[in-house]
Amino acid sequence: MLETEALGCELCPTFRERARNFCVGPIFSKNSGAGILLVLDNPSDEDFVAGGPTWKTDDWTTLQVALDAVEFGPEQVGFTSATKCPAGWTGKKELGKEHIENCRPWLHREIEEKFPNVKTILALGRIAAASVLSIPMSKVSSYKGKINEVIIGLRTLKVIVSVHPYQAMTS
């Protein structure tokens, strides 16, 4: 099972820097029957502990407003995070290249196994886009405003890259 395997991950620098229980967060698969998957950068501390979106932070509120505007309820879209550790637990503001590369196989397996009906991914933020599309973070801006494709498992999925909800709030 994916969750059990993920708990054994020792690739993340967080594993080397923190106690064992801080290494890998829960696989965030929420609403696995959805056709659209929202991938955010990394879970907040609160979302990590809850095992999924809590809808209590400003960026979740912004996302809910956007979903309401297009008449999608949170139950109609799937949610996950590109990396499985909260950035705050690494002692850094943002997770880096090593976290993205180490979590990418887990994210792709999660998409393949937990979201079998997904046809479109909305990557919200640089880390999410870099992870989903397997590109460097420095190239993310060239993928915005386009419908991109990625092959995950046996499926070709559409990927739309957008800003993180927090960036949308501060723009």
Structure description:
- With 171 residues, the chain is an alpha/beta fold.
- The protein is built from 7 helices and 5 strands.
- Strands 2-1-3-5-4 form a 5-stranded mixed β-sheet.
- Strand 4 and strand 5 form a beta hairpin.
- Helix 5 packs across helix 6.
- The chain starts with a helix and ends with a helix.
- 35% of the residues are buried.
What layout of secondary structure does this protein have?
Layout: H1 2-7, H2 13-17, E1 36-40, H3 45-50, H4 58-69, E2 77-81, H5 97-114, E3 120-124, H6 126-133, E4 147-152, E5 155-162, H7 165-170
Parallel strand pairs: 1-2, 1-3, 3-5
Antiparallel strand pairs: 4-5
Short characterization:
36% of the residues lie in helices and 17% in strands. It is α/β, with parallel strands linked by helices and 171 residues long. The N and C termini lie far apart (41 Å).
Strand content: 15-25%
Question: How many beta strands in the DSSP annotation?
Answer: 5
Helix content class: 25-40%
So what's the overall shape?
A: globular
Q: Cα distance, first to last residue?
A: 41 Å
Largest sheet: 5 strands, mixed
The whole-number mean of residue pLDDT values reads: 76
| Run of helices and strands | HHEHHEHEHEEH
Uncertain segments of ≥5 residues (pLDDT<50)?
17-27
Question: Helix- and strand-based class?
Answer: alpha/beta
Quaternary assembly: single chain
Largest sheet: spatial strand order: 2-1-3-5-4
Radius of gyration (Å): 15 Å
What is the number of helical segments per DSSP (H or I, 4+ residues)?
7
Name some characteristics of this structure:
single chain; alpha/beta; globular
